[in-house]
Specification:
Helix content: 25-40%
Distance between the termini: 18 Å
Number of strands: 10
């Protein structure tokens, strides 16, 4: 595979943003429980993307990750609207954007048996909701105080999207959102490419 080349802003971020507490993903009525997300390539992409930036977990003993993948409108907007480049980039990324949209259409549950190569713990939306509730009912009425008391070794938590791929599975797109307190958080899209069997950060070449 030749390296993808385009002039494009690959990583867009929201910094110092007040994210609301994450709501748990719940089955409604006769809706079947969310299916397990079992694509091994996706977990390799997670491990590679998590290794790119360390600021969101350097102050944590353990990375706390929401185990549900909620179908949602991402805080940054749709990737096709955020990640832009030249005609070549647009053509090569079109199937990746489509795959990303389809992969995130329905709720999924992360596979707890997969090693992400970082100390981590998966937490359910219900557990987070309970922690936030305790904070709201406490003396300070601070939902994040409840979070810090419940998860003292975690500096916030991460939300991961399902991963979009091209047909050859040599280009991947994943969304990562970090929530860490009132007016504290960030969100990024990561475009990755597989070179020599290893997922690495996609670096466009100026044309």
């Amino acid at each position: 595979m030749r390296p993808v080349s385009a002039c494009v802003a690959l990583f867009a971020a929201i910094v110092s943003w007040g994210f609301p507490p994450q709501k748990p993903v719940e089955a409604k009525g006769d809706q079947a429980p969310a299916e397990a997300y079992a694509d091994p390539d996706a977990y390799n992409v997670y491990a590679a993307a998590l290794a790119i930036d360390g600021w969101y977990w350097e102050s944590s003993n353990t990375i706390l990750i929401l185990k549900e993948i909620p179908p949602r409108e991402w805080a940054l907007g749709a990737p096709s609207e955020v990640l832009r480049g030249d005609a070549t980039f647009a053509k090569e990324m079109e199937p990746v954007f489509k795959s990303f949209s389809e992969a995130n259409r329905e709720p999924r549950v992360l596979n707890l048996d997969v090693d992400l190569h970082r100390p981590h713990r998966f937490v359910s939306g219900a557990e987070l909701e309970e922690a936030f509730r305790k904070g709201q009912e406490g003396k300070t009425h601070d939902v994040w105080q409840g979070f810090r008391e419940t998860f003292p070794n975690a500096a916030g938590y991460l939300i991961l999207s399902a991963v979009g791929f091209n047909s050859e599975k040599t280009i991947a797109l994943v969304y990562l959102e970090h929530r860490c307190g009132n007016r504290c958080g960030a969100a990024n899209y990561y475009v990755m490419q597989k070179l020599g069997g290893v997922w690495v950060k996609y670096l466009p070449q100026a044309q």
